[in-house]
Amino acid sequence: MNTPGVTLKPEDILGIVSRRRWHILVPLFFAVAAGIYLAFTLPKIYEARTLILVQEQRVPSDFVRSVVTEDADARLSSISQQIMSRTTLERIIEQFNLFSGPGSDKMFLEDKIESLRKRINVEILREHRRADADAFAISFKGTDPRRVTQVANELTRYFIDTNMKVREAQASGTSDFLSGELDKIRIELNEMESALKDYRQKYMGELPEQLSSNLAILQRLQDQLTAKGDSLRDTKIALALLDKQIAEGAQTASLPENLGGDRNARNPLDSSDPEVIRKQLNDLQSRYTERHPDVQRYKKRLEELEREQTAGSGNTTGALGTGGDRKPLNPIERQRVELLGDKMDLEAEIEDLQSQLSFYQQRVENTPKREQELIALRRDYDNIRDIYNSLLNRKLEAEISVSMERKQKGEQFYVLDNAKVPEKPIAPDMRKLFLVALFAGLGLGCGLAYLLEYLDTSYRKVEEVEADLKLPVIATIPPIYLPGEVRRMRLASALSFLFAGVVSVMTGFFAVVTLKGSDQVLEILRRYISI
After folding, report:
1. What pairing do the DSSP bridges indicate for beta strands 46-55 and 120-125?
2. What domains lie within the chain, and their CATH numbers?
3. Cβ contacts of residue 136 below 8 Å, gap of 6+?
4. Is 343 helix (H, G, I), strand (E, B) or coil?
5. Contact between 434 and 511 (Cβ < 8 Å)
6. What is the number of alpha carbons within 13 Å of residue 510 lying toward its C-beta?
7. In this predicted model, what pLDDT tens digit does every residue of 457-509 receive, in sequence order?
8. For residue 333, which of 283, 391, 299, 382 has the smallest C-alpha distance?
9. Per-residue CA distances from 310 to 277, 304, 334 (Å)
10. What is the reported pTM?
């Protein structure tokens, strides 16, 4: 066969297969047998899968805004980390009695947790048009299909419960935080209100809104002061005329009603009546200073008359009380006394008006300063009030969001497909095992046959002889078999056909195991055997 320049024909290949059929069938037999053995002996891994839909908020966001701003991907990642935690996995191991088989008691707890963590898978599913997760799948792998299903459903339940707790905790945390901040702002707002109230009370009358009333009062006081000034001036003129008339009457004694003083006296200083001297002194004091000579003379004369009266009667008060020593005033003097009283009253009123005028002028002057200070206080108060109102609105929204989450009206995880007991294992891959075993047996058998044919130096055809010896072949002698050799050849052919049938049956059985699964095949075999 190793003769160069000879081309193999289909009949040559069939001849090789016929001669080397045992070398092909035996490796194929062992490969199929090994595949069947592995199909029944390899540990089978089952997978239970749950599909969960991320359901959007049921209440329109235009009416109720959720305070849970974390997107579904981040929340799934957070929940996955919680599920993959040591505490949760230990609880699942104890709840479902995992790793209870032989040899598992020698495993460390860390190894069990790591093995369980590798068998849990969370896959996020989303549409191409959306960035957020539309759904996600939770899968769990194991050797016991029922236990795998139970664990997958438990993980699903834990996912849903944890999501509800996380959302409610976030909403409640936001509401509590806003409540705390609202209390702080409320205290500051009350302090600002008290400060604003105290300021208005302290500077009442100097506030900007009172400026118009202060100006009106100033104008009224100014008018009153002008009127009182005119009245005082008229009173002083009248008083001066009376004083002049009294002085002229005292000198000429021409007034019939002048009862005061000596009628024959020309100089008022010659009068012995203290009232006449006192009136003249008052008149002079209204016109001159205390250092004027006439003022000094009348003061001195008044003191002499008072000393004389004191020495003569001994008790001025008692004499005045009886009224027997005092002479009645004439109408002009009485009018003068009244004018003097009016003058004193007007002066007092003018002084009071001037004091009020100064007071209200000071208020008007302080109004711009108070306005600036009040603007600063109101600005701080308005800022804090706006912050308070904003926090109050957010607090109300947070409380509504908390209520929505507690009533399960927010974004939720909705189970579309619960985990069911798997009937077919996902590992080992029976199709891959079947193909590997089949191709391995055929490859090994064909390779061995090809190798033996390549090493075989005998001639099979005339062309091989001519190509190798470069001589033409004149005649060929066919092989002559003895009867015993013929029987052996027939027996060998029969055995090879029988063995080929066995290999075919085994291959077919292997194919059925691949398609149906080893457990179902065993169940079918048990059913037929029991029948």
Report:
1. unpaired
2. 10-39+438-530 (no CATH), 46-183+406-417 (3.30.1890), 211-378 (no CATH)
3. 52, 54, 76, 122, 123, 124, 125
4. helix
5. yes
6. 28
7. 777 777 777 787 888 888 888 878 788 888 888 898 899 899 999 999 999 99
8. 283
9. 16, 10, 25
10. 0.55
